[in-house]
Every structure is written in C-alpha cells, then in structure tokens.
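Escalated from tier 1: UFG holo job.
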Amino acid sequence: MSKGRVLVTGAAGYIGSHTTVELINAGYDVVGVDNFSNSSPDMLKGIEQITGRPLPFMELDCSDRDQFAKVFERYPDIAASIHFAACKAVGESVQQPLKYFENNLRSLLYLIELSTRDGHGRGIVFSSSCTVYGEPDPENLPISENAPVKPATSPYGRTKQMSEEILHDCVTAYPSLKVIALRYFNPIGAHPSALIGEMPLGVPQNLVPYITQTAAGIRKELRIFGNDYPTPDGTCIRDYIYVCDLAKAHVAAVDRILQVKDSDRYEIFNLGTGTGLSVLELVNHFIQATGVNLPYSYAPRRAGDIVKVWANPEKANKVLGWKAGTPIDDVLRSAWKWEKKVRGIQ
Ligand code: UFG
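Tier 2 regenerated the structure:
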C-alpha cells in the first residue's frame, strides 16, 4: 500500500536523489522533476537501479509556471512536496544575485500557489540551510532552532531566509498549507551502492568533493583555507552530516506532515549530528578511513567563511524520531567509493 504521492523537485540533484530513494523505500510514490541545470539524468538511472522500479519523472523548470503546473495536472494526487530545486553556489550568487532571486524565489512562489490553489491540504518540506544563522555567537553553540537568524552573507543565503519567511506568511494565509523547513548543516557522502552521489561541475567548492578529487589525482592538493582561526587546531569547524541520514529526515518530515494532524503548520528543524569537526580532523578521518594519501597545504582564509558552527539536533531527534548516526569514517568511505566509481578507479 502506497503512503501517498510525494513530488520531489530537484530529484536528480545530490540531496534530492538520495531522498527519492529513501521515500520509495519507505513506501511513498514519488514523482520527480528536474531541469538538469546542475545535475545529470544518470542520477535517475541510479535511483531506479537502487529501488528496482521506474521513477515517474518530468523534465521541467520549476521557475517556469506553465511548465511547473503540468506536474500537478498529471499527478493531481500529490499530497506533499519536497522542494530541493534551487541554485546553491554561494560565490556565484554574489556575482549573479538576480539569477538566485529569480530562480529560487520564483520556483517557491509557484510551488506554494500550485500546492494551495484548489484548496487541497498539501504539505511542503523546504530545503533550508544553517547559513540562516550566519556566524553564531559562541554561547549559542550548539545552535538550536530558536537562535537568532542573522543578516545573510550572500544572496544564496538570503534566498533561504526569504523563502522561510514567505512560507511562514503563506501558512498564515492558507489554512490548507503545512510546512516543515529543514536547516541542513554540511551534507556529505554518497549512497553505499555508489550508484548516486554528489556530482559537482568544474572545480569543487565544497570540502569533501575536493578531498575525493584530490585523492583520485584530479586535483594536485587540497588547500585548507585558514589555519589561524580561533579553534583548537586553527581550522574551521562544521557539522558534517551523512546525506543518507539527511534523506531519512525528509521521510520523517513528510510522515509528520501527512500523518500528525495536530502538529503546528509551520515547523523548523536543524539537521545535523550535533558534533563539530575541524577541517583538519575531517582530513585525518579521511586518510585513516580510506588509507589513501591526501596531499594538503595551508592557504589563506576564504572570504565569507564562518569560524565554527554545529547543530543542536535535539528537536529533530525528539519530534521527528530521527537521528544522524552513521560514523564519520563510514561516511567518508562512501564518498571515496563514489569518487572511484565515477573515475573508474579500482
Ligand atoms: N574548505 C577548505 N578547502 C576547500 C574547500 C573547503 O579548506 O577546498 C573548508 C572551508 O574553508 C570550510 C570547510 O572546508 O571551513 C567547509 O567548506 P564547504 O565549502 O564544504 O562548506 P561551507 O560550510 O562553507 O558551506 C556549506 C554549503 C553552503 C551553505 C553553507 C552554510 O556548501 O551551501 O554550508 O553554512 F551555504
């Protein structure tokens, strides 16, 4: 028996593909949409191989209302959506803010309109980010959902803050709408099958893809941005969460929206492990877990980096009944397995 139909926007993307797998494994019918602007149709094949069934899918751009409306016409049984489709490069957003406002906000506005226009009660799980907290005050660490939202440091971050505010206002206005905003910390790793994973275009901006590409010999060395921060080893601290654990939190959020009738109609959850790791600690875990040599050097600080942030995930643990439990060495081995698969390394 199906638990209902879930629309996944950005289903071919990194977190979208892993979440689609977990939704199907949990008994949901999924329809995926993606315009492949920053993803590959190969991911859909990977999803189908893992789950052993065809994935209903429409190639379309969510920031084009007429295109986006077609998925609701073809699948009127959509009970909830998970909205991943968005541009996500922090640096690019500084150079091209309009691209980010147009794409990320337009697609959200259309999703809300299409989800509510016929008065049906549809849920939206929104892909937000810990970037909304900015640089947390040290007394707020680990950071919980009621910590202050700080002015965004990039247009990308601003779209996440604005999207949360838009959703909050719309929940007030439309009684049929229920929303859960999930604030991710740093998602890493790949599905254990190595059939889906992160696929950055060009030079990776994020730490783990840069590490795995360096280990694969594609990059000469990892440059660790800054070793003079006020942290125990001088490198920045983040909360790295396994993408499959993160994906399962989305299933728990959809379960809550569809099954818990008296829950608040707008809720926010931090999704992290609750443990901070420094860049150097992560590098050492990678070397230890994989046995692979990883050349690295120290480089100047990267503009805009925050010093340290990690989650207090107690609310998600308690209310969603979810916990990120995969050991970091297993997570890093999964990232390496995926990189080897992509590069054809034995
Ligand atoms: N880092 C390096 N070398 C690299 C890449 C990264 O030292 O080649 C360091 C960064 O300086 C940072 C840490 O590794 O200290 C993590 O960097 P990432 O780019 O992997 O992740 P960020 O925490 O900077 O960014 C992530 C998401 C963003 C999101 C942000 C919210 O990628 O989309 O978290 O805080 F906005």
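Residues 97-116 form the longest helix (20 residues).
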